[in-house]
Amino acid sequence: MSYKQVIITQFGEPDVMKIVEKAVVPEPAANEVRIKVQATSACFTDTMVRKGIYFDLKKKPPFPPGYDVVGVVDKLGTAVTQLKVGQAVADLTVSDAYTEYICRAESSLVPVPEGLDPAEATSLVLSYVTAYQMLHRAAKVQRGQTVLIHGAGGAVGTALLELGKLLDLKMFGTASKSKHDLVASLGGIPIDYRSEDFVERVGVGGVDVAFDAIGGDNFKRSFKTLKKGGMLVAYGFYDNAMGKGGSVPIEFMKVALWNLLPNGRSSKFYSIGGLRKKQPDWFREDLAALFDLLAQRKIKPSIERRMKLDEAVEAHKLIEQAAVKGRIVLMVNEA
């Protein structure tokens, strides 16, 4: 049986992605299961992978992008003991999820509770686990604290807002004007990053935690907003990825060195992949906790568009134009 996947033919702009048909579906190794994919996010990290500038992945084309996946177990490897055919599962794949079928190790999979929407479930795997771990594992936020969220109208930003609201946080969120209604609806105080100075709006020493994926000078300015005892959580380099300058290694070192300054503030860099390698059980625990919140309808991922797998090029163009409120999900093998 043949199947389709979207591959990156070479590093570059969205048009380097092509849909191809593979002659035979993959066979799982002994410790793997084959998954019939239902949904995978199209996210900003995928665009970095497509450009060849994502520091946590060293693969060379051709290969499919796709950082997360939700699907149904289609076939078991001979050594698989904990999963069954027909069971819904999720994984953080980093790449390879823009496909109709994928094989993954049983040990890496997290069961998805029955009845959850695959698009909402896959939205939790990267964006919400990132937000949850930055709040609880990295910053260890306390109820009622004040935080600054950059890119508050994006996939991780909206997740931070939703989860922060559950903690009664006071949340400032930078976003373009078109996304201010969304930010406000999720409990944030919108700041227009194009026309307002967020340092002035928030105030020097005004927040307990700043979450910043912009990079460059933004890291330094976010650090200024911290109270004594506050923390900058840096988790990306948007400006560098969009060709706006900056050096990832230098910026990474700056964030680390700020911890040596005698000013009572701290900084750290968060990577979901890096933390999963160090603490694999945390990923499973945190994703399971988020699935529980979703089942209880305490969170509802903001999904602007559900697109087909063969619309991946258009999805990446929308992401890079910052035209998406929340997230895009690619729907695959829909019933």
From TrEMBL:
SMART domains to which the protein is assigned, alphabetical: PKS_ER (SM00829)
Enzymatic class: oxidoreductase
Alphabetical list of Gene3D superfamilies matching this protein: Medium-chain alcohol dehydrogenases, catalytic domain (3.90.180.10), NAD(P)-binding Rossmann-like Domain (3.40.50.720)
Enzyme Commission number(s) from the entry: 1.6.5.5
Presence of keyword Oxidoreductase: yes
Keyword NADP in annotation: yes
Enoyl reductase (ER) domain span: 12-330
Single GO term (MF): quinone reductase (NADPH) activity
Keywords per UniProt: NADP, Oxidoreductase
Signal peptide: none
Name of the protein: Quinone oxidoreductase
